Amino acid sequence: MFDVVVVGAGPAGGSAARAAAAAGARVCLLERSAVPRYKTCGGGLVGLSADHVGIDLTGLVRSTASALTVTLDGRYEASRGRRDGRPWLSMVMRAELDAALLAAAQQAGATVRTGVQVVGLAENGDAVTVRVRSGADVRARVVIGADGTSGRCGSYVGVRCDQVDVGLEGEFVVDAAMADRWAGRMLLDWGPVPGSYGWVFPKGRVLTVGVIGDRAQGAALRSYYRRFVERFGLAGLPREHDSGHLTRVRAVDSPLRRGRVIVSGDAAGLLDPWTREGISFALRSGRLAGEAAAATVAAPRASGPRGVAALAGYPSRIEQILGPEMDAGREVLAAFARRPVVMHMLLASPGTFGLFTRLIEGRTTVARQLRRPGVRAAVAALSR
Questions:
Q1: pLDDT exceeds cutoff 90 at 51
Q2: What are the domain boundaries of the chain?
Q3: Are residues 314 and 42 in contact, defined by beta-carbon separation less than 8 angstroms?
């Protein structure tokens, strides 16, 4: 029996496994696919992600962006660049980032098993049995679910989400001339579907291009994606990947724990409701989950009610650290969906543009800005 089983090898799972193993727990990470494996993701590391990734990103960063263009459905273009050339955003391939985080967890002492599909969980006393397909079940004192929005762990805990979006994305292989035109520059486009937006992220000879918005507007989003790709002359180019995925945002009162099972990252619905950025939320919640799990198994007399005392504090830690950011994201999304033209003009203005880029860099947060009375009043007025 292991101390901790982590289900899922994304940023949340890798971060959780490494944190728990580094704290001395016997950790086993289970992943259904071979690693590295493709994951639909823009791959832009905002400042909070870079701050909490905990590994050397040298060799993982495909490119950086020190210039940003924002548009409103292709119109009202505004562009700014950094005079000092320092990047606002680093671009990575998710498959490579996940593999590096998994390697760091292994170096910390975690056992990794790939090709293992979890089909259910069952608690009995001071242990959790993780049932798997085509293999022996795995037992642990604590299970950390990091198996995504449709995984078994979130269902077991009873995670509820009240915002579901669909992202459509392609990895386009471009020629040297187009790669040079996009080098060091990213684009964000506020889309025609309320609350939607599109992005172009350069990664050398690959451009990651996508859109995201409300799943209920799926047909309109598909049309937006098609026109967005055509706008940049990419429709006829080869694609390394072309895929769609759902993102689900946790409801305010949704549980994060059931007994000896806790959830983190996408499995818990932890991401920014406005930008749908999830990597920084996954890294932070995964680390907190790993630390809570390790503290649980290290506690005296780990069996019985006292054995889950450390886990009991995990939800409140998530609420304390990530809750305000998610609440702020909901407020801005409401304003953005209701008044996209005004929001674009605000974000494109010289003063507010600087604030927006500081958000990307991680030098401030939306939650921190909403504590300013003037900002809160403006966002509230736009939401009405």
A1: no
A2: 2-41+94-161+251-324, 60-91+163-249, 326-383
A3: no
